[in-house]
Amino acid sequence: MRKENSTQAINEQFLFQVCELNSAVAMISGRWKSQIVYSISQGNNRFHLLKKELPNISEQVLGRQLKELETHAIIVKKEIPETVPPGVKYVLTNKGLDLIPILESLCDWGKTYAEGKEISVCPMS
């Protein structure tokens, strides 16, 4: 856990105050968050479906990334009462839905400009 008065925390707070871009990037930063958001938008809205879609992510990391996306109100967790035991599904909020075209544009940008990588398919396009 990082100290709130550390140089890194102070610098981060300053950057968030001077530019909204820094805050936005912080909300979706993380190796898996963009893939999780996109996967939920494609109907993989339950934990086991996300794990199946993203087999290289550990369950612990998936759970943590989902919680962070919930904290930033990009997704919400809803109960599915008709299942036994009751299950949950993840649903994109309006904020999350607004993020999809941005992620698709970033994917296109990455296809064009990613250095040293052959990118032929991006799951977001």
Automatic annotation (TrEMBL):
Keywords: DNA-binding, Transcription, Transcription regulation. PROSITE patterns: HTH_HXLR (PS51118). Residues 19-118 form the HTH hxlR-type domain. Gene3D superfamilies: Winged helix-like DNA-binding domain superfamily/Winged helix DNA-binding domain. Pfam families: HxlR. GO terms for molecular function: DNA binding. It comes from the Bacteria. Transmembrane segments: none annotated. InterPro entries: HTH_HxlR, WH-like_DNA-bd_sf, WH_DNA-bd_sf. This is Transcriptional regulator, HxlR family. It comes from Chryseobacterium oranimense. The lineage of its organism: Bacteria, Pseudomonadati, Bacteroidota, Flavobacteriia, Flavobacteriales.
